[in-house]
Design a protein that fits this description.
Elements (H helix, E strand, L loop, with lengths): L2 H17 L4 H14 L3 E7 L2 E7 L5 E7 L7 H16 L6 H12 L6 H18 L4 H23 L4 H21 L6 H8 L6 H12 L3 H28 L16 H15 L8 H24 L2 H23 L4 H7 L6 H13 L2 H37 L1
Antiparallel strand pairs: 1-2, 2-3
Helix pairs in contact: 1-2, 1-4, 2-3, 3-4, 5-6, 5-8, 5-11, 6-7, 6-8, 7-8, 7-10, 9-10, 9-16, 10-15, 11-12, 12-13, 12-14, 13-14, 13-16, 15-16
Length: 406
Amino acid sequence: MDYDTLLSGCCEMGRQLLEYGAEIQRAEDTVHRLLAAYGLEGEVFAIPNCLWVSARCPDGSTRTVMRRVRPASVDLEGIERLNDLSRRLCADPPEDPGALLRQCGETAAQLRRYPAALCMLGYFVGAFFFALFFSGGWAEAAAAGLSGLACGACLWLLNRAGANPFLAMGASAFVLGAAACVPAALGAPVSVEITIAGAIMVLVPGLVFTNFMSDLLTGDMVAGLATFARAVLSAGSIALGTGTAMALFRETLSAQGGTVVQYGPALYCAFAFVACLGFCVPFNAQGVGALLCGLGGALGWAAYQAGMALWSSPFAASLIAAIAVSAYSEWMARRRRCPATSYLVLAMFPLVPGLTIYQAMDHGLRGDTALFLDTFFRTMGIAGCLALGLLVVASALALHRRWRRR
């Protein structure tokens, strides 16, 4: 058997999973299972931008393959298709190891993707309903939707052009901030703060920040620190871009209007559902899975509100909500035989502290050290509670599987 080709195929599977936004642990576990299907014991080490696979072959030699992972946007359809492919390959491994590479390439080529126009509509819907979710009125929601649309279009064009991801994020944040300030500058009674809060969900690295805490809690220090650096740099780019735009409009924003609207608990859950549904399109969640992702977002926020009603603590409420969302995602994954990531990524959107990360970096760039430290550590606490909630469910399921095997 050509073990070099076999390791290359296993490494390609893990690389594609990482590029589509799968967790470090999922990519490593998938490669381990593929090696085990061929009777090999190997070592797999992954960080967000690189993957190493090493295995000892029956002839006594040790082979090692490394692949660099290019930064890419989350593609939930790609994760689901590769997960399904890995299940089939592990159940019936082909005798020709070259089939691994061929099937990985065929799977990537056959992925369903939404057209660009529909992705832009998804950005608009997500930003529109997140502005309502942040207690904005219909004027703020419309302004946020247009800002999110402009930001999403800029981000899509720059990513297609191969621009540096942090430069693309900063430029898109500038477009977002300028688009959010224009209605208020023209005299419309719109709150710029709520408009930006809703539109900036297009860019926020809150899920990346939560993943960093999850990696650290599971002992993966290198991947956790790399993800943390990415989240901080992303938040800094967003804060710099929007801050620059607001500085240009500062003199015309002194008399901005807008009011905070208090909705009922059910409406907030409905806003979370539709907002998550809107972001299903840019994240390429296909079919009925998109509706189930939106339902998970509404469920998570309902659990958060229940936690706040019981303990009046955002940390306890975040923990309860994360447990609820994680349990829901794992249950749906087993019912539909697909990765829990597909539901977890989008259902966590209303909970992740992406907005507070941006606010922390904005305070830091303005030189307000006290507010920066207060917001930053509050963000760290919420992200830690979310990661702990995910870890509790994952650990409970792992213990249950071991008990059943015994």
